[in-house]
Amino acid sequence: MKEIEVEAKVEKLEEVLSFVDELLSVYDCPMKTQIQIDVAVEEIFVNIAHYAYGEDTGMAVVSAEVSGDPRCLSITFSDSGVPYDPLKKEDPDITLNAEERQIGGLGIYMVKQSMDAVDYKYENGKNIFTIKKFLN
Amino acid sequence: MLNISKEVNGKSCVYYLEGRLDTTTAPQLEGDIKESITDINSLVMDLAKLEYISSAGLRVLLSAQKTMNKQGSMVVRNVRDEVNEIFDVTGFADILTIE
Lengths: 136, 99
Description:
The structure holds 2 protein chains of 2 kinds.
Chain A lengths: L1 E6 L5 H12 L6 H21 L7 E9 L4 E8 L26 H9 L2 E7 L2 E9 L2
Antiparallel strand pairs in A: 1-2, 2-3, 3-5, 4-5
Helix pairs in contact in A: 1-2, 2-3
Chain B lengths: L1 E8 L2 E10 L4 H11 L5 E12 L1 H17 L1 E5 L3 H10 L1 H4 L4
Parallel strand pairs in B: 2-3, 3-4
Antiparallel strand pairs in B: 1-2
């Protein structure tokens, strides 16, 4: 299990993505899967950066590992901000036309659609969000 | 990292996007489009070199589409498979005119 702790700020997104991509680099991961993982990491981390600590700042911990056969990537995001379960957000209606479409909730919807498992829990004062994705 | 280049010809404008359209780069494109399309009635987004798009990027495309619905048309072309997959999952494949 590898881990990175960063300030929960949008400016740290690149650092978090590099951390995940470096972990993945030794596996023969299809481009489509790699992009789905990057999108999921971006959406979840940016959510934390925008909402977890309100006007204040705080830390976010991202830990990741690849295990099992078939290989599965597991990434956990944790923060000590306000309790918030993004999975409770209603899915956007993706059949609406451009004028009617709302952009809210689209990020987490993409995460749910593209990952093999997503899980949220609030434990010991922390939001803990986990995603899993099979690599091949 | 996102490289934005564009060709304006009368009332037509073609954007060529290269790299990643994400939370970090989307504001840059949003600002550029806002300034550039006020007098445009044909907007083309060429995504041949766009490797990645997240919801922040989708938001910019949706906003451009809404503006162009009022004053002309917008076409998205040369979309890579990985980006197209994201358009499919989010229903953007139906909102955008993809060639």
